[in-house]
Amino acid sequence: MSVAIVLVEHEGGRIKDATLATVTAAAKLGEVHALVAGQGVGAVAEAAAKIAGVTRVHVADDAAYAHNLAENVAPVAAALMKDHGDYFVAPATTTGKNIAPRVAALLDVMQVSDILSVESADTFTRPIYAGNAIATVKSSDAKKVVTVRTTAFEKAAATGGSGTVEAVSGGGDAGLSAYVGSELSKSERPELTSAKIIVSGGRAFGSSDQFHALLDPLADKLKAGVGASRAAVDAGYAPNDYQVGQTGKIVAPEVYVAIGISGAIQHLAGMKDSKTIVAINKDEDAPIFQVADIGLVGDLFKIVPELTEKL
After folding, report:
1. What is the pLDDT of residues 144-174, one digit of tens each?
2. What's the helix, strand, coil split of the chain in %, to 5?
3. pLDDT tens for each residue of 167-217
4. Distance between CA 216 and CA 205 in Å, rounded?
5. What's the alpha-carbon Rg for the chain, to the nearest Å?
6. CA separation (Å) from 47 to 21, 87, 249, 290?
7. Neighbouring residues of 138: CB distance < 8 A, sequence distance ≥ 6
8. Do the strands 255-259 and 276-281 form a parallel or antiparallel pair, or are they unpaired?
9. What is the largest CA-CA distance in the chain?
10. Cβ pair 146, 88 in contact under 8 A
11. Confidence (pTM)
12. b/e map of 56-82 (b: 16 or more CB within 10 Å)?
């Protein structure tokens, strides 16, 4: 039976939801093994072993892997692939997109990126042209490296599995990069890729102050995550990690509220899989209304405060 090795994304001792969707995709390819790399990650490994469908967890626990530097983690994954892996499967997130290409290069194979479905052992579908077309691609490589659009797959159950845990040694610090520090924005709001409700704003807000003055109270009422269009981020209204779209985060919440967002292709590529889309825009011809389930044509500076007050 083929073996698919899943890269486990974790932070603060918690496995990210993107990993659970990646496990579902990997299960369509064969027996699922997991790779946990980091420092002091025993608890993460134990949690990974409990994911439904995972039969074995490989743990690379070393200071060299503490910050998921791709230059250090990729050789561990490549070595596992050479020993017994047929597929290396990573979520198409910032971390996955950083590590997977290096694994592919070390194995001297192509990478199949951002898959939407597994058609067979060697055939996948993936979006092209910012999601406006779906390509069916077939890989002839003996070992395959795949990244997964996590919103396209259901999440595997986080419990119920009984995988074994075993330590693996890697090459340690490759000496090609070094962790200097992180500047992270802290928020009590749900993370965009796992939020059930997202309110998202565009450049029509006019300023950072108005963006937060109007969106934050609405998000508080809905217990929602806050997103932004690329235009709003480029204008400095919101930080980069708010960005939803082809060049930002891919989201698929239960409800996505797009406010003052025109609906450029790059933005739609990141949110059009949302279950229900609500659009508020004063331009009735805005493309966002073509994908919206509920549309309100009007001035966001009147509608948003009124909506917030009535919730």
Report:
1. 999 999 989 999 999 999 999 999 987 889 8
2. 35, 30, 40
3. 998 788 988 999 998 877 677 888 888 899 999 999 999 999 999 999 999
4. 13
5. 21
6. 15, 22, 25, 42
7. 122, 123, 124
8. parallel
9. 62
10. yes
11. 0.84
12. bbbbbbbebbebbbbbbbbbbbbbbbe
> Quick one: which of 31, 39, 22, 283 has its CA closest to 149?
22
Whole-number average pLDDT of the chain: 94
Could you identify the residue written with the tokens 């709001």? 189
Name the CA dihedral angle for 226, 230, 234, 239, rounded to a multiple of 10 degrees. Answer: 30
What is the amino acid identity at position 195? Answer: A
Length of the chain: 311
CA-CA distance, 277 to 281, in Å (whole number)?
13
Distance between CA atoms of 156 and 54, rounded to whole angstroms? 10
Q: For residue 78, what are the contacts with CB-CB under 8 A and spacing of at least 6?
A: 103, 106, 107
Q: Are strands 144-148 and 3-7 parallel, antiparallel or unpaired?
A: unpaired
pLDDT in tens, 99-127: 999 999 999 999 999 999 999 999 999 99
Q: Tokens for 211, please give them.
A: 């963006």
